[in-house]
Amino acid sequence: MITISKQVVYHHACCYLPPIVLRHNSNPYNMKTLKLCVFAICVFSALNSFAQQKNEWDIRLRVVGILPQESAKIGVIGGDINISNAYIPELDITYFFAKNFSAELILGTSKHKVKTQGSNLTAIGGSSAADVNLGKVWLLPPTLTLQYHLPTGAAFKPYIGAGANYTIFYNADKGPVVQAIDYQNKFSFAAQAGIDYDITKTVFLNIDVKKLFLNTNATVNAANLTPAGNQSLAPVLKNINADVKIRPWVVGVGVGYRIK
User: Fold this and answer.
1) Measuring CA to CA, how many Å separate 240 from each of 119, 220, 233, 250?
2) Gap between the Cα atoms of 159 and 151, Å rounded
3) Quick check: 9 pLDDT over 70?
4) Which residues are CB-neighbours of 12 under 8 A, at least 6 positions away?
5) What is the CB neighbour count within 10 angstroms for residue 110?
6) What pLDDT, in 10s, does the model give residues 213-229?
7) Facing residues of 252 across strands?
8) All residues at 6 or more sequence positions from 186 whose CB lies less than 8 Å from its CB, including other chains
9) Count of helices and strands (H, E) across the chain
10) Domain 53-259 fold
11) What's the 3-state SS for 87-139?
12) Cα distance between residue 18 and residue 4, in whole Å
């Protein structure tokens, strides 16, 4: 077993820490005490890192590709989903609340075409593997991430981050086939990695990759497709539900300006 002998010494961060001297003993509580001391030192080191405030703002303007990795479970008619890629300008605001830690908020909006693939429309006189045009929809996905920036001491400054996304679906255009379509706004988890490359002390280039684990529930009203000879299908076609996984990659390249 282990005991701990203590002697008060002065630590460089203006606090008193006990040096640890180990020797064998039969007291079962000394190991717990040792673990508590090690844990306290680790916590102190982390708090000391956060205390080194940087008070820096970074503003980035990027060209972003939004690349859905979509799939869906569609009720009644089955099939899968296809969501188009989109390419947009995006604004990013980052604040360093500690030396190597920051919070990033991205702002941008994108428009996507939507259609089903391989849906079974034989009940209404269509194909057994039809594509159904579901029009277009706009997405507004503000995303907030917390980032850790590796202290390289060089022009290349890599970082990683994780956070939350809230996607708002708006201005949904139902397209030429169905009567109406509705999407639910959703929260999702976001992960990211990127690199800043300093051109000057205030101007830098940026490459950023995010993954949004975004799902939504869509409801399609296709009651207008009810066959005249089978009106019993109307309630079913009026409420076709789909569990849609969008899960896009968001890949951006741009330029940034640093304000200290």
Assistant:
1) 12, 5, 11, 29
2) 9
3) no
4) none
5) 21
6) 999 999 999 999 999 88
7) 64, 208
8) 166, 167, 214, 215, 216
9) 2, 19
10) Porin (2.40.160)
11) EEEEEEEEEECCCCEEEEEEECCEEEEEEEEEECCHHHCCCCCEEEEEEEEEE
12) 9
The residue ranges of every structural domain in the chain are 2-50, 53-259
For residue 94, which of 201, 206, 189 has the smallest C-alpha distance? Answer: 206
90, two tokens: 């995006």
Both structure tokens of 160: 């990683």
CA distance 171 to 1: 69
Q: Which runs of consecutive H residues, i.e. helices, occur in the chain?
A: 30-51, 234-237
CA–CA separation, 254 and 89 (whole Å): 9
Q: DSSP assignment of 71-82, as one string?
A: EEEETTT--EEE
In whole angstroms, what is the distance from residue 243 CA to residue 234 CA? 21
Q: What is the pLDDT of residues 94-119, one digit of tens each?
A: 999 998 999 999 999 999 999 999 99
Q: Which residues contact 166 (CB under 8 A, 6 or more apart)?
A: 141, 142, 143, 185, 186, 187, 188
- Strands 21-24 and 9-10 turn out to be unpaired
DSSP state of 185: -
